[in-house]
Design brief:
Two copies of one chain form a homodimer.
Chain A lengths: L5 E4 L11 H16 L7 E4 L1 H9 L8 H16 L2 E2 L5 E2 L1 E7 L9 E5 L5 H9 L2 H18 L5 H15 L9 H19 L7 H14 L4 H9 L8 E7 L10 E6 L11 E6 L3 H6 L5 E2 L3 H4 L1 H18 L3 E8 L2 E9 L4 H13 L5 H6 L3 H4 L6 E2 L7 E4 L1 E4 L2 E7 L2 H9 L4 E5 L7 H6 L2 E4 L7 H9 L2 E4 L4 E4 L4 E4 L3 E4 L3 E5 L4 E4 L4 E2 L5 H13 L3 E5 L3 H9 L5 E5 L9 H9 L3 H26 L3 E5 L13 H11 L3 H11 L11 H6 L1 H20 L5 E6 L5 H22 L6 E6 L2 H5 L1 H4 L5 E5 H9 L10 H6 L16 H15 L4 E5 L6 H9 L4 E4 L4 H16 L6
Parallel strand pairs in A: 3-4, 16-17, 17-18, 18-19, 26-27, 26-33, 27-28, 28-29, 29-30, 30-31, 31-32, 32-33
Antiparallel strand pairs in A: 1-2, 2-7, 5-6, 5-7, 8-9, 8-11, 9-10, 11-12, 13-25, 14-24, 15-19, 16-23, 20-21, 21-22, 23-24
């Protein structure tokens, strides 16, 4: 094979570049790229990924000719560094690191300080004038090499180290002096001999060769194989091996190490940001034993080096057209850049940097939009805990809905509503919430529950309301009778006490903490405008009251994609609703529905007025009727008295409506078919509201949505019902309203027979929550016992209730879209439900050719940005298949 | 248009034949066919179905030239009958009947006695010498014609008739004398004039023309259109119109009417079977006012006519190669065959006739197999109530599992087991049953419940056991404390009293009724052998104990397709099972599982021995754990004491396991993944049993089935677990057992990702019960509130839990089969669950290319026959697409 195995990088003729990721791996390509830019990186060479695959083909043997190339490149490094590998006087040391085309963080092996032995250690001591440093380097080398290249378990080295510390009565490694470390090196070397039956390899060339092999071998360790399987990465791309000269920042006061960002990663302001230590290695900067200094101070110690860093940063930023996060080492007055990478940043900084860079001419608007991750901006939309505040965290639960909230603890929904009416700020604390708590949840500043996961009722509703929420906080025990809760068994908080909850971290904090308000105008608005110019997928919001509708409009929603009507039946309306449910006759139900009609008509009018000229998808009653009945004995007794029934009759009624699997029960259009008077009332309320407003000069675009359709016959019946009522009302009101009737696609059967369903539908809206439940056979309420385990152990890559499962649910949706548009080419198709605000799911919706996504109002900006990203990825041809 | 509109039939040159169903409709083609055979049918003619469509194209007008053809054919009839249409002396009368290519029973209109008016009635009186008969015919004519051709509501005629009867103080129409009928005719004619504003048409030709139009019009009535939609019949095939001369069997003692079968429809014995009346019309034979005589007696009255009938029957049977059910009329010594059709017959007769006809050389074996409907033979497999017994039916419920059973009433499962152990025959009577009742159900003769539908627990389990069962018998109220039940609020039955239940009709009968045992050898066995020679689809049974396995083998099962393991954990094992569930640690669970291991191993051994050399698919634990815990307070207290827990702890445990939607909860392989020790124990039990038996010289073919797989990762994990345990056990026992590991496909996601799932599966088995629940989003336990309504109102054509929904669930299965075999071309695929014994579902499975169906042991013969039918239909090219 005449191919080239090894690529050099350094001042003296770099052979690779950034485009060669496939051949050199990510790290190798980047080192080459920096060298090409004239930046001083410690010189070295990369053994290609092709060699890795050849190595395995040959049965874990290096291909012929490789070693010669390695030696030749090593000599070039020696020349450039003015030191020699294995030289006891002036030893050159190498690091050996993996580097595949795709980063597999922590999965593969590294060995540092290759080249150390009992001879070269003397040279290192001399060069560094630091015996302790040298022996520390040595013992680290023996540990790493022993573990990685010789298969001696890491824990055995640790044990010896611990024993030594015990002997000396010290706690930290740093307290071990040079002598102790030297002793340890001897023990380590003996350990290796004992375990492997062979002496520790002293020959630096043998060390290097074994180090390279070890990195190759780490490509096929079980954990690496599993990682690739979980991330759908191919097995045959192999890893490169980067052999790079070691440099040391702890060679005296003319040396040092640091980390620097080209812009402030917290604010995005353009100035060098970072820290450094004189006479220290890079790891000391982050270890926190010595306090590093701000990078600005480097100007005083080494003005020239500072200028170099500033200039390199500038060049790298221009080259990579993004903020750089650089690690540097100064060895004996010479600056080496060890690594540069795109700088991580806060959401606020990301927005500012993206907009600034457009203004600086570094990137265009399309690129700016890609620079801010949709998930990130979620943090910008909510108040947050003041980062400078002192916090007394008393418990931690699951972060269910972002933002922070401060208020008085209250344990029930009614009281929350009462206090909120008196302008009190309240945190509603409950074991778990149910539909009856909606009013209180809405009136609260935030919600804290002790049970349930991030898809529990409390979490879902809170996200919909954009309300801060912490759930499943099992460290808290609520004692409602005593009016208190206990955190971690010690802190007792009484009703009325102030707490602060952080829905972004899950923290529960004692007292009132200062909150920071979000900033949504300025550069944020500019960036969102650019995103809107790019995207084609429309974004609507889920809202069922005027307040949410207003928030949705403010956040840029282009309509309401899901207006649930069941929330409208709680609060003051619950009585009439219960009367309806408890009636045994159609007549009785109709009487109760007549009471609900004007209320519901009023609800619709308010929302229509807020959203006017934008479409509003109204879903007719969906949940099973038993959700509206009280479950507790006292409440049942109360209601029974009110209704003139005996408690026994009431219980029998409730029992009769009980369902083994309510998710799969008598709900959705099944209710509308068996009790058509309910949907008739709802349709009447919609069209009376619409007609009255149109007569007043408003524009109203209602889209009536039928839930839980499984068979076209169900849709045909309910659609005919809605059309009939619409015509009646329009005739009564002498006005015409344009409207659509469509259906949720939330049952697998609806998707599978979408060609037939589309005959009766003027639009589809995927209800991906239920579709996921049915496709997986997975109840959101019950998944807590195994779903977190599944995600943690990699059975599932994502929680399918957070991100649409592309293989299962996504395939179902694809079938639904294809069959639906087979019947109606231009069928309008959207998605409503939690997934509509998840960026990966938005991307999938774009790929499936949907017209819009709908999500909670507070997720609308996220969805807008995600939709723009999907469009940009598509244009770039990088949407996953 | 030069086409022919009208086809004549009669002695004088019949123009059609049986092949012309499309053009002449079914009835017309049959009349022509009989005429061709030289059988004397009342002559007449058929207006083609094409004319019908032309009629509608012309805007409900007869095409030009039709009337001329009608007149010409009418003249031929007059010639043949020696009477004239409209002749006051010797009037010919016509019937006008519809007849489409496909029978649409009761959907379209008929008019009899066309040609009557105030003149021709005199001729009819003279000819019949029976004034009452003539006026009765007249008033029937006016009623039918008024209703069908003139649109006067039928009820208006009825009202006048009732009034007349009141006037005369009589109850039945038959008590009206000639004078009264004559008065009524006058009233009817006046009614028509009043309602239509025109005189009743007197002109026979006008009557005929209007009658033909009326039959055409009935093709497009809403009920006919709905019928076609529901039965997927095309709208554009139209109906023919048959105009046939009327003959009368009540013209004196030389006339008569009767009905005759060519073989005994109850037993299948070859002899004329039927009855007749002298001087009577056909309707009198069935009306029951005069008692008809046995057909054999006709030999004495009219020996020649009897011989003619015998000979015609023989000819028709040979011609149609099937039993004929003929209606005949003798008018004045002349025999007319009015109709012949395939004779309905009992299951027993069907089997005998099919086998006899092969022996007679009339049909071949393949045809014989098609002559017995799979559903029919179900009745042959169970004891039945003696048809001659006097029954005191005290209540009626839903027929849930066929057959009949006699026994003493007992209200709980334990007592049932006790009494059964003493050889008592017991009927278990409960409000509803649960998993805890399995032992008692098995020990009983039959089961009666007062709640639940035909897919309730009791029904499903009883069918699985082949045990007679009546469910949802709401006419019975059980009072367990008093040890009695009350039927229809009056009959009180005490525990220990005998009752008989009929699972084929749903009847509950007081006392001990004589039962008739089924006959499964002889001709039944011959027919089943022929079916087996034809079919390619294999049939297995669902069985989880040696008794069921034995029944399955006896009924011809070719293996066990579903051996549930959860039933094995009840009875004596429930204690250890509960101990396992209540343990908080893996260790505790393992200890409890160790107790279960030998029991489960024993279970498997017994089944392996019964089924040896046939494959056995064993499903690992599927239901959620809470199903094994007691729900009542007393039982919880008892268990708590036993386990050394407090009642509160016990309640908390039970509460903790409670699920909102157990169907979608922590069950199936989700249990096996979170508690791998459970599946490990089960795998160990299977392979220990298998290895021990193989060492004893048996052949054992275990197929381990993983339930509720949604993602291939779940199957990979559990399969590796099973393989590991299998290898361990085989190494311990020093023997090799061939086995497979496969999965249920019961979640939509498994079907949608079947290509991936197949990578880890050695077989698939569709769990169509759950697959239907998920695809429809429909809980079998909760569907009672709307599913019956859906089926009744035509929203769904079939109950999807009885017959696989071909469009939804069938499509899901097709995807599963195609994707699965994309990965593994020869993947073995079956179906287990209730549908496996439903003939239409068996046909679907055949179409989908499945290898086998599995059903309850008692349905195996049904499935075998259905599988043969599917193969025959396929060969004939008549499987529906």
């Amino acid at each position: 094979m005449g191919q080239k195995y090894v690529y050099y990088f350094g001042a003296d003729g770099t052979e690779g570049n950034a485009q060669m990721r496939g051949l050199l791996g990510g790290k190798g390509a980047n080192l080459a790229e920096m060298s090409n830019l004239g930046i001083s990186v410690p010189p070295g060479f990369t053994v290609t990924t092709e060699v890795c695959m050849e190595y395995f083909r040959l049965g874990r043997k290096m291909p012929q000719g490789l070693w010669e190339e390695v030696r030749a490149n090593m000599n070039r490094v020696e020349e450039e560094m003015g030191a020699r590998f294995g030289d006891p006087e002036n030893p050159l040391l190498f690091s050996v690191r993996s580097g595949a085309r795709v980063s597999m963080p922590g999965m593969m092996d590294t060995v540092l300080n290759i080249g150390l032995n009992d001879h070269t250690i003397q040279g290192l001591i001399k060069k560094s004038d630091n015996q302790r440093f040298a022996y520390d380097a040595y013992r680290r080398f023996v540990t790493m090499f022993g573990d990685v290249a010789l298969g001696v378990e890491h824990s055995l080295f640790e044990e010896l180290l611990e024993k030594k510390k015990e002997e000396l009565g010290v706690k930290n490694d740093t307290e071990l002096d040079a002598q102790a470390l030297q002793d340890i090196v001897v023990q380590f070397i003996n350990l290796v001999k004992e375990k492997t039956g062979k002496p520790f390899p002293e020959d630096p060339m043998e060390q290097l060769s074994m180090g390279i092999n070890a990195v190759f071998n780490s490509w096929n360790t079980p954990r690496a194989v599993t990682y690739r399987r979980l991330h759908s990465l191919p097995d045959d791309i192999g890893t490169g091996v980067n052999v790079q000269s070691m440099v040391f920042g702890n060679m005296g006061d003319n040396s040092g190490s640091g980390v620097v960002f080209t812009r402030d990663p917290a604010t995005g302001v353009k100035k060098l940001y970072g820290e450094f230590l004189i006479n220290a290695q890079g790891e000391d900067v982050v270890a926190g034993i010595r306090t590093p200094e701000e990078i600005a101070n480097l100007k005083e110690y080494m003005p020239d080096i500072y200028r170099q860093i500033d200039s390199i940063g500038d060049n790298l930023e221009k080259h990579y057209r993004d903020v750089q996060d650089m690690e540097f080492t100064i060895q004996d007055g010479k600056l080496y850049i060890l690594q540069t990478r795109t700088g991580a940043r806060t959401a606020a900084a990301a927005v500012r940097i993206a907009v600034d860079m457009v203004n600086e001419g570094l990137i265009d608007r399309r690129e700016a939009v890609t620079r801010v991750q949709p998930e990130q901006i979620n943090h910008l939309l909510f108040p947050t805990v003041d980062p400078d505040a002192d916090l007394e965290v008393i418990a931690k639960g699951l972060a269910a809905s972002p933002g922070a909230a401060v208020g008085k603890v209250v344990f029930n929904a009614e009281k929350t509503e009462e206090l909120a009416a008196e302008k009190e700020k309240v945190i509603l604390v409950r074991t778990e919430t149910s539909a009856e708590d909606i009013g209180g949840m809405n009136a609260s500043q935030g919600i804290l529950t002790t049970r349930g996961g991030i898809t529990s009722h409390a979490a879902v509703v809170a996200r919909g309301m954009g309300k801060c929420c912490v759930v499943g906080c099992e460290e808290i025990k609520v004692n409602e009778e005593r009016g208190e809760f206990t955190a971690r068994g010690k802190v007792v908080v009484n009703e009325g006490d102030h707490i602060t909850i952080n829905g972004t971290t899950g923290e529960v904090i004692l007292g009132q903490v200062n909150l920071v308000r979000p900033e949504l105008s300025g550069k944020f608005a500019i960036l969102m405008k650019w995103a809107d110019e790019i995207r084609t997928l429309k974004v609507r919001a889920n809202a069922d009251n005027p307040h949410d509708a207003e928030v949705a409009r403010d956040f840029g929603a282009e309509g309401i994609g899901l207006c649930r009507t069941e929330h409208m039946f709680f609060g003051g309306r619950i009585k009439a609703m219960r009367e309806m449910i408890l009636s045994d006759t159609t007549e009785g139900r109709k009487r109760a529905l007549e009471k609900l009609l004007p209320m519901q008509r009023g609800d619709f009018k308010e929302i229509f007025i807020v959203m006017q000229d934008l479409p509003i998808t109204i879903r007719l009653l969906d949940p099973p009727l038993h959700e509206f009945l009280p479950q507790g004995k006292n409440e049942q007794q109360e209601l029974a008295t009110e209704m003139g029934m005996s408690l026994e009759e009431m219980k029998a009624k409730v029992e009769n409506l009980r369902e083994a699997n309510p998710m799969l029960g008598h709900r959705g259009c099944r209710l509308g078919i068996t009790y058509p008077e309910i949907y008739e009332m709802q349709a009447r309320a919609i069209f009376e509201a619409a007609c009255e407003l149109v007569n007043e000069g408003f524009t109203v675009i209602p889209e009536v949505m039928i839930p839980l359709v499984g068979h076209v016959n169900e849709l045909r019946f309910t659609r005919e019902l809605v059309n009939r009522v619409a015509e009646e009302v329009m005739a009564e009101k002498k006005v015409n309203v344009k409207y659509l009737v469509g259906t949720m696609i939330e049952l697998p059967r609806a998707a599978l027979t979408a060609d037939k369903v589309a005959e009766e539908a003027e639009f589809f809206s995927f209800g991906t929550n239920d579709l996921t439940q049915m496709t997986y056979g997975l109840s959101r309420d019950d998944a807590g016992k195994f779903l977190p385990y599944y995600v943690e152990k990699g059975f599932l890559q994502n929680d399918p209730f957070v991100t649409i499962d592309p293989d299962g649910v996504g395939t179902m949706m694809r079938i639904g879209v294809e069959k639906g548009r087979m019947t109606k080419k231009d069928l309008k198709i959207g998605i409503c439900g939690e997934h509509g605000g998840d960026p990966k799911s938005v991307e999938l919706c774009y790929q499936l050719g949907l017209d819009y996504v709908s999500c909670s109002p507070y997720r609308v900006p996220v969805a807008r940005l995600a939709a723009a990203h999907a469009g940009l990825k598509d244009a770039a041809g990088i949407l996953r298949e």
